[in-house]
Automatic annotation (TrEMBL):
<keyword id="KW-0804">Transcription</keyword>
<keyword id="KW-0238">DNA-binding</keyword>
<keyword id="KW-0805">Transcription regulation</keyword>
<dbReference type="GO" id="GO:0003700">
    <property type="term" value="F:DNA-binding transcription factor activity"/>
</dbReference>
<dbReference type="Pfam" id="PF13377">
    <property type="entry name" value="Peripla_BP_3"/>
</dbReference>
<dbReference type="InterPro" id="IPR046335">
    <property type="entry name" value="LacI/GalR-like_sensor"/>
</dbReference>
<feature type="domain" description="HTH lacI-type">
    <location>
        <begin position="29"/>
        <end position="83"/>
    </location>
</feature>
<dbReference type="GO" id="GO:0000976">
    <property type="term" value="F:transcription cis-regulatory region binding"/>
</dbReference>
<dbReference type="InterPro" id="IPR010982">
    <property type="entry name" value="Lambda_DNA-bd_dom_sf"/>
</dbReference>
<dbReference type="InterPro" id="IPR000843">
    <property type="entry name" value="HTH_LacI"/>
</dbReference>
<protein>
    <submittedName>
        <fullName>LacI family transcriptional regulator</fullName>
    </submittedName>
</protein>
<dbReference type="Pfam" id="PF00356">
    <property type="entry name" value="LacI"/>
</dbReference>
<dbReference type="InterPro" id="IPR028082">
    <property type="entry name" value="Peripla_BP_I"/>
</dbReference>
Amino acid sequence: MIALSYVKSLFTRPGPMLRKPGMQKSSRITLSDVAKAAGVSPITVSRALRNPAMVSADARARIDRAIARLGYVPNPAARALASGRTDVVGVIIPSVSNNVFTDVIRGIQDGLQGSGLSVQLAMTGYSPLEEERLVRVFLTQQPAGLILTGHEQSPAAQALLRGAGFPVVQLMEVGPEPLDVAIGLSHFDGARDAARHLLDRGYRVPAFLGAQMDPRSQRRLAGFRDAMAGSGRDAPPVVTTPEPSSVSLGCRMFADLIARHPSVDAVLCNNDDLALGVLFEARRRNIDVPGRLGICGFNDLEVMQAAAPSLTSVHTDRYRMGQLAVRQVLDRLKGGGHPRGTSIDIGFELRARESTAGRAG
């Protein structure tokens, strides 16, 4: 379930060695060795590595030449002892196979360019207990910051993160009382607006399909039900499953839905994989989209624009979330950033396309 190179590895990775005549054992090249070779003080080398702008161009050039000649690699353990942290930002996500989180990671990585920090990634497999274990692991490694998803951490994990002593950013949604700073959107509002869009386009019997019903998906379902209740539809068709989402699952779920509710003429899916599956199954059954069936997804992956017909979806800017999370960590390390308890709502956009052009007749 986990694909992670833990920060722990930074403390055990051997660095380049300098062997001197008559030595029986190798010794690590030190920062002092670099300083001596470059003709500067050790503190100047340290500044050049941490904040090059604080060192003159001439000194930086001499230090760079000395590092290249000696093969020096900074000792992360020593740096962690000196600064109280490692140069690592921990990122805990549910899954790397979910394309939604791929965009988040890309935003984080791009945001860290030139900062001197690197990413250490862990996956929970959607398990709160695994997330709690990973939080404990990262806490022992003194990261520069920790980015994780959602607000439903276990009580033990929440207590640990509140006292972590480094920036903590919760991504993907906003809500009351973030542990530190939260960046995301209202999944309830996004799904409610999408459901209202289906009604506005003339669809009479919208249904909801949901898989991997994590808390964000549950909020999307609640938003759908709220829109239906507001239009006098108190018991709309709903089919959900705890199974991991996939296109093929969307095919099967839609087949089950119309077998039980043949009058359904629109489907709001809790993600884009399911929406694609609904489209494929509808085409296999010669069901006209959008004339007989409207389809809407959530997240707006790139494939939604390329589908035929193109698929309506709720656009969420995952890349921007990742970049804003990194900016918060970097700003906090410099003594700035948003104060604890801040929620940043970046909003969403319903991108209406061909799949909800309107019901025929």
